[in-house]
Amino acid sequence: MLVEIQPRDPSPVARSVPVRRQPLIRRYAGPLTPYLYLVPALAGLVLWVYRPLAETVDYSFYNWDLLPTSPKLAVGWSNYKQLSHLPALWQAVGTTGLYIVGLLLFGVVLPLLIGVVAQNVSPRSRSAYRALIFLPVLVSPVVAATLWQFLLAPSGGLVDTVLSWFGLAQTNWLQQPDTAKYAIVAISGWKLLGVAVLVLTAGLAAISPEYSEAAAIDGASRRQVFRQITLPLLSPTLMFMFITAVLALPGFQVSV
Questions:
Q1: Among 10, 144, 160, 205, which is most exposed with the fewest C-beta within 10 angstroms?
Q2: Count of CB atoms within 10 A of residue 238's CB?
Q3: Distance between CA 18 and CA 14 in Å, rounded?
Q4: Are residues 138 and 175 in the same domain?
């Protein structure tokens, strides 16, 4: 049985493959494409944040009750001069400065010391210390408020009871203006301490021990290693915790 075989066409017709067109924004924007995706977010930021802020600064130079029927009188810097003579302004500045210093103490200084000291203990004890320090973060705000109200109670509170053992007078920590500020700073820092220790411990663990070993071989002391090697390498983490502590200030003030 003979089968006729048809010869193959030496020049087959190439199939037409559809070409995918790039989006219009990519063809004409070029290197500006990533920035164009930020336009909606930036527009909302300008509309809802920077525009009201600019209007507030502009209104501060006028004497106006914001009613369309009342005239707007330009007074220059007199509003700022009047504000600078208010005792409440400087009291608020001092209280805010106290909060910032206290939160930086609990959010940067103490966590750094705890993280450095914890590196010299055994791994099992180190985990126990970190768990105890991080425990306040897991406590809900309602439970924490109740706990501190019990500890700082003027009669029968644990803090006043311990102070009475040393002959110190009982104090109403949460209702006296002189002591309430320090009590609030301690409570706020107590909640921030666990997260700060966790972050700074991770930053210390990321530093290779080869640097300190090489410095120790060259005759550097522990203080020199900490000041000239550990702190510079840990500076990004410290800056992060500094910004976190300062940004956390309004939330602590509102909660108080």
A1: 10
A2: 17
A3: 12
A4: yes
- What are the helix (H) ranges across the chain? 24-29, 33-36, 39-45, 51-59, 78-84, 87-104, 110-118, 123-138, 141-151, 158-165, 177-205, 209-217, 222-225, 231-247, 249-255
Q: Report the amino acid identity of residue 22.
A: Q
Q: Are strands 62-63 and 73-74 parallel, antiparallel or unpaired?
A: antiparallel
Instruction: Read off the pLDDT band of 165 (50, 70, 90).
Output: confident
Q: Domain total for the chain?
A: 2
Tokens found for residue 201: 């411990």
pLDDT in tens, 46-79: 999 999 999 999 999 998 888 888 888 888 899 8
Rounded distance, CA 181 to CA 97, Å?
A: 11
Total-model pTM: 0.67
Q: Are 128 and 183 in contact (CB under 8 A)?
A: no
Same domain, 204 and 91: yes
- Print the domain residue range for 58: 24-82
Same domain, 113 and 238: yes
**32 and 96 share a domain?**
no
9 or 131: whose pLDDT is higher? 131
Tell whether 172 and 228 lie within a shared domain: yes
107 and 122 both lie in a single domain: yes
Rounded CA gap, 190 and 186, in Å?
Answer: 6
193 in Cβ contact with 107 (< 8 Å): yes
Q: Are residues 49 and 148 in the same domain?
A: no
Closest CA to 248 of 183, 203, 189: 189
